[in-house]
Amino acid sequence: VPGGLYGPKRATTGVAMSADEFERKIAHLEGAHLIRLVQEGGSDPELHERMVLVRDMQVHPVRGLALHADFYEVDLTERLTVAVTLHFVGKPVGVVNGGILQPILREVEVECLPTEIPDFIEIDVAGLDIHDAIHVGELTLPEGVVPVGDTTRTVVAVLPPSIEAKPGEAAADAAAPAAEGVASATPEGPPSKKTEG
After folding, report:
1. What is the pLDDT of residues 21-69, one digit of tens each?
2. Mean pLDDT computed over 150-173
3. 165: buried, middle or exposed (CB in 10 Å: 19+, 13-18, 0-12)?
4. Beta bridge partners of 102
5. I want to staple 72 with a disulfide (CB 3.0 to 4.6 A). Which of 55, 146, 162, 181 is the partner?
């Protein structure tokens, strides 16, 4: 699998990885994960033992195999912004009452040290009733991890149930305005007289 290695303190360098190892260790990961690159033989200190994040990955549209990957080298002592996947757990009270669970965000951006990046953020939605919501500022995050951006953004909500009209009722409702329109369009006045002939 071809790729590129870049960072704030290095020019972009072309790299290549074993496809089997890449699929087994990296391709299935979701969100941001700290990865240690090891150069075969360890002869090049510029590539060996580098700590990186996968910034972009191109995947074959049919076979699902990785075609290319970009790695971003990080400094373990500097905080950075990454996107972390959200996992929703529990069955909301509002869903039991007929509501619909509506995730608004699937991931959220946070700031932390590279060594503190969470694998995912778990959100317990069991206590949500209809019209309830959880916002970014209400998330329980690990120590050292802080949300980035607007903390009032809605992460997940429970919507009221949608009501569908029955086919007969919909037809009657649609016919009623038409009938009223015909009636109001009829001119008033005495009935016309027939001419006998």
Report:
1. 888 888 877 778 888 888 877 667 777 788 999 888 888 888 888 889 9
2. 76
3. exposed
4. 157
5. 55
